[in-house]
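Justification of computing resources. Each target in the renewal requires a structure prediction run like the one illustrated here; the chain below, 579 residues long, is used simply to show the kind of job we budget for.
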Amino acid sequence: MVTHSPVAQRTSLFTKYFLALFAAVVVPLLIAGGSEAWFGYHDQRARLNDLLGAEARSAASKIQDFMEGIRDQLGWTVQLPWSDAADERRRLDALRLMRQVPAVVSLSLIDAAGRERLFVSRIGLNRVEGGDDQSANPAVIGARRNRVWFGPVTFYRGSEPYMTIAVAGNRSAVGVTVAEINLKFIWDVVSAIHVGKTGEAFVLDQPGRLVAHPDISLVLRADEAATWPLKALRAAILARPGQAVAGVDIAGNTVLAAMAPIPGVDWSVIVKQPVAEAFGPIHAALWRTGALLIGGAALAALLAYWLTQRMIGPIRLLEDGVARIGAGQFDHRIDLATGDEFERVATRFNEMAGELAVSQEHAERISRLRRFLAPQVAELVDRTGDDSVLEGRRVEVVVVFCDLRGFTAFSAREEPETIMGVLGEYYDALQRVIGAHEATLTSFSGDGVMVLVNAPVSCPDPALRAVRMASDMQTSVQTLLVGWRALDHRLGFGVGLAMGPATVGRIGSEGRLDYTAIGNVVNLASRLCSSAEDSEILIDRVAAQAIGSRVPLVELDPRSLKGFDQPVPVFAAIIGAGQ
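Resulting structure tokens:
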């Protein structure tokens, strides 16, 4: 019971304090904030429904009063019956009406017979007793039928909105008055409507064209494509009558909008307010709730820190020790003497660190060796634990160089993916051959490869082993060349090797070490490789004498090689013969 008590106490402490602090501080704030946001949103939405709806109805009423005022003014012109002679009084009444009602652009007085008796215009010539038959005019027909007729909205010269209003008298003898109304004057009514700071109203006719807007340039342009979002906004409101709906205005802003119809003219007044402004109080409440949550979380963190200080000491030691071991400090040991599970955990980590140190040393040794030794040689050096063979010394070595003929031209014309694919196959083939002959690969450089035989681990008859390895290299790469030439890759493969004394050993810095050879024999092998044609293996005299008759060799004419004062005797190995 005593042994397991600390575990139960540790678990219960963290669980109890975490859940208690979270439930006591954070959860109530979340519930309060969520409920405030939920109910606040619905309350604000209901308030906005009422506000926007009231503003829309008020605007509709004002525009209706505007239209009815014009209608009433026109009604005074159809009080008296017409006589056969010209009536000067009617002309004066018409001129007075146009002064009193600036929205009236032109006025036509039609007698009972449907003839035009008087025409007064702000933009055209006045006519008295014109006599044109207007009995078939839709405005005259509509007024005689319904007493008042409102025509559709038209755009004068494609910009200014106009509307025809016709009013008939109580008796047919008094005739009909037809007036053209400039609807720009409704702008005064619409521009005076404000909801909040940036809310505004606009008017659409029955087809959805913009009749009035605070930005009068939108109306004057009469661009139905540009005002299409407003028509879509009206359609969304019609789909949910009696409610304010969210939509997008011309500027692309998300707005909340409500609508009211204008009787008689079949227009719609839409009042809109940006959603960001409409729900500003809700956003402010959410910010307040967020601040409370942050404050509550900070308070909970402080309480947890204060309450757990006496028990987190061992945890911090374990955490620091694990971090050091994870960073590679395997000699670090965690010193805990608590007599409980913490101490046992620390002991296990110390044992693990010791095992990791041994494992890392072994892995690093193998990694270093495998960079330039054949796998078999690397395993041998690691197994014996003696890497003194890698130290610098003077030995007799065979240096082998090989590279692809025509690779520079090939890399200049081919795609990078093709070049990398060819090099990948090429390196794989060479590495298999080098590993099979237990030679030492010192470097890859582009398409060139340098290999050492008899270093760092000595082997019997290194010259024979080197020439057999070179022959296997030619066989493997020539097989690849057959496939590459079928793809129009004009490449070849040459090998050069030389035997002689060289200084071999590790060279480089602490961060990067390589095993290489330095000496005249290295330069000679490199020059022989550069001189070799496709399928050739060129050998110097020393290596040829060491090989003797065990591999058929052909003595070639001495060659002048760069860096050598005298022509160098050269031999060529016959691939596949006597091997």
